[in-house]
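We modelled the chain as a single entity of 275 amino acids. Its sequence is:
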Amino acid sequence: MEQITTFVFPICRRGFILNALKTLKEHTPYAYSVIVIDQTIPDAAFEAELREHCDLWIKTRKNYGFAEAVNFGLRLAPTPFITVMNDDVVFIPNPYPNGWFQGILQTFHKYTTAAAVSPMSPREPGWGYGKEGFIEYLTFEESQDAENIKRLMDEKNGQMIDGITCWGVTFRADYLAEIGLFDERFIWGGGEDYDWGAMCYLKGYRALATSKSWVYHWWGQSKDEPDGLDEALPLARPYWNKLNVLWPSGYDQWGKDPETQEPLRRLPEIARMPL
């Protein structure tokens, strides 16, 4: 069977990735490959187990940050779709014969100009970003029941949001090649999705989050709590208002040396070129 997508997991902590890979296999009945960009402190036992679940395991000598690590995997993926996932994702039952990824593919089929599609999470769906506290439609335990996910799908009735989130997003590889990869000045996890989305729309494509696909995201467990808000907000393009808020993020675990946990580089002041 021809592989349809390559999963790219950039990791900087060890606590979640193995469960993500195990649930991916359980709930994704498609042919796919897995690339892990491992930026953790060396640990022989962990690495041996991790490699059992990977088609390609890349161990870096330092923490390059989120955007640059993801770009490593995007350049190497040979499939028509490429899926980037955080390590604190758990794949859950969806009420489709082929699971959560079927809803992703349906969205690409319906919206032919879609260059990227993100699933929703029962813990913090796309329409909840920026609201005070979490929107938790389902607890983790409730999310393990496909009937509960079906109820959410029926409630949202195919709702889409113009905007992606890089805790989980599938790219159409040919459109991605035209639009370009992430700006690697976004060292931490956050902001690179707004910037890429802006470039996507400038090229005439769309970036969508779909309520036809659901994956549980623990939200913030693969990185430190957001910090440096005053420095981070200028990175979101001022005209990128298709989402109703700016996603505040600053330095976190991404971009810090795994040995010392000190930032490797300063935050950039602006993203790419001015308007």
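As a brief sanity check on the tokenised model: The mean pLDDT is 79. The first strand starts at residue 5 and ends at 11.
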